[in-house]
Queue: 2 jobs
Job 1
Amino acid sequence: MDTESKVAAEEPRKVNFIEEIIEADLAAGKFKSIMTRFPPEPNGYLHLGHAKSICLNFGLAEKYGGATNLRYDDTNPTKEDTEYVDSIKEDIAWLGFHWDKELYASDYFDQLYEWAEEMILKGLAYVDDQTQEEIRLGRGTVDKPGTPSPWRDRSPEENLKLFREMKAGKYADGEKVLRAKIDMAHPNMMFRDPLMYRIKHASHHRTGDKWCIYPMYDYTHGQCDSIEHITHSICTLEFDVHRPLYDWFIETLGIFPSHQYEFARLNLTYTLMSKRKLLELVQKGLVSGWDDPRMPTLCGVRRRGYTPASLKMFCDKIGVSKREQLIDLQLLEWCVRQDLNARSNRYMVVQDPIKVTITNYPEDKVEWFDCPLNPAEPEGPSRKVPFSREILIDRADFMEDAPKKFFRLRPDGEVRLKYTYIIKCDEVVKDESGKVVELRCSYDPTTHPKSGEWRSVKGTIHWVSVPHAREIEIRNYDRLFTLPDMSEVPEDKDYKDFLNPDSLVVGKGYAEPALLEDASGIAVQFERTGYYMKDPDSTPDNPVFNRTVTLKDSYKPE
Ligand code: ATP
Ligand code: MG
């Protein structure tokens, strides 16, 4: 895999290879309109990889005037759950897409069963009594043809009787399977009598106890597509070996010719997207839940403050190809900043404070400054920011022995307090340990922003008035893993060995009062720091903010 850099951010998008296929199909009159589907298995929450598939499937239908079905691939009763079904709908709707029909592979269990009987009667399927292991060994290898099962030549009548008994619950799990009778020497291993049905005495989240036999993926997916007249069935590259079998079942049954096309899945640096591993993180308590803001799940990034627009922008930038690639997480963060920079409200918050006393400012005086919520719209909506004799500034904005290029506050130096006056540092107060605890400053009243005598100094810093400051909890998040390419976890290690111990740093902040009245519903900008999203854990006494992303790239290549 190679790392795609930020360059992708600058490139205009061309038509991708699937769009080329669709345009050719439409031009040739193969279809009047297109139909796509998004087929999640309801065994976990959707992640950023799914967002790519969703944007692609729904995006194509929008672009070419077609429609997209949401079809749950629910043929694995033991792993599936309605909790996941509901979350999937919520996440797709949040992204802003509308499905045509909500469907389930289980809706087609009767039809699939009928087709299986049809195949049995045509001598194209048989009941096999071998164990899973015997079947596996009998398949042979790529260089060695398989060995036919001793049960391969049962008569259609016997097969039908046994298959009906399987359905009726006469046999235990694993005792028998139904296999397609194709070719045990076929060069494509998929064709060496693939399984069609297995016995599983398990309750299904929708069909309950109606079935104790369940169809296999390969016997299900293509037919479901066909029933729904899906014109372009789009999936990830690992399914390309399944495509001939997909076609075989459709041709054998003589049903609507859906076609499958494969694209490269999304891989992101420092990120894992296997549902199985994400589930493990949740179950072991290594994250707070599926919606932990460090998770790559859509509910996680939503809670963190990523927006649907930023995810769509990202999917658009990375494009669609057949080449496996590892995308830089920074590209996603760039998209998030891009969207939030344009839309988010600004507030001042100090996280690591030093108290500043403005000695020549009257003790009881408070001035309220009218400050734009977004600097891009100076005449747009504003908030009122109080200024008083005692304020807080960030420790990082003061330096005693500052180098020349340090344009913030230093002893005897001047700085502009954002939206207000210029102050000068007259005295540095320290405690016994030598830590700076207070700066005694004076302000220049002629530098009021509306005084008309604008005097400029090099630096501008943010600040918060002490009597008006509101204490908040801040959860500063960083990437969950420390390994850039999580597909390269060494053999002798586990992916959990690469969890970043500093992925969450909880701290406090002191905010201007207007922050707590913000009703925008999206992440806000803490000026000069980053974007922050109010968390549902917030209470009136303890407002909580999640860091969505820092303002600038803090990333430094090694
Ligand atoms: P996982 O491997 O994370 O468990 P999955 O492929 O089993 O994912 P499904 O619910 O079967 O998850 O996926 C639904 C759709 O989303 C499929 O079409 C699948 O190809 C696609 N998809 C899953 N992961 C990615 C990814 N990383 N990038 C692009 N598409 C993906
Ligand atoms: Mg899957």
Job 2
Amino acid sequence: MIQLENISKVFTVGDEKVHALRNVDLTIDTGEYVAIMGPSGSGKSTMLNMIGLLDRPDSGVYSLEGQDMTALDDSRQAELRRHKIGFIFQFFHLVPRMTAAENIELPMMLAGLDTRERKKRMERSVEAFGLADRAGHRPDQLSGGQRQRVAIARATIMQPHILLADEPTGNLDRVSGGEVINILEELNSQNITLLMVTHDPELGRRARRQIHMVDGQIETDNSSPTG
Ligand code: ADP
Ligand code: MG
């Protein structure tokens, strides 16, 4: 379970203060599928980064599976992030000089898995995401859809409980975007909590729950009756 209580985040640029999150309260249960929507600059990425332990709030409490994240130091947070959280970005964030297989292997290296386990998981993963014949290619030799599938493979290789996707289809054509969404929804059906930021209302409606953010706050939060 993800629990945000009274979370605020202010960025200071020069002498201007930007209130990216204002007293946000949010609870998300294990296995939920949540779409986060709202205009550009409304705090969607800031909230996702906070949940993904890529950033810290200025005030408030964030607890994950009952544990207060705000009390942990950076190295403990990194450790939890590696094991519990997978992140997927609009622009993929793959390591350009590494092959698809090496990108997928990276989180397992960081987590200290042995060579045999890494190889086993990597082979299973490239197969599952339809990348078997692309494993030796670098990101610049892959299509957008393939790059995002590598990114999903990398994000899930440590078997996280939570997947955070920040506009995962924002840089893809309709067909590749649809494939990526199908993969994410399939992972969610295996009880991985899925939080997805999207600009696309049609995609947003596919989620069982939609959160609309405006100006650093959650304006509406509703569960779709049809699911
Ligand atoms: P969204 O993802 O909804 O477009 P963001 O969470 O990226 O919005 O940003 C929310 C607000 O915080 C925006 O006004 C943005 O300019 C500001 N902001 C986000 N990250 C930073 C940062 N690292 N430094 C300064 N301002 C930031
Ligand atoms: Mg954003």
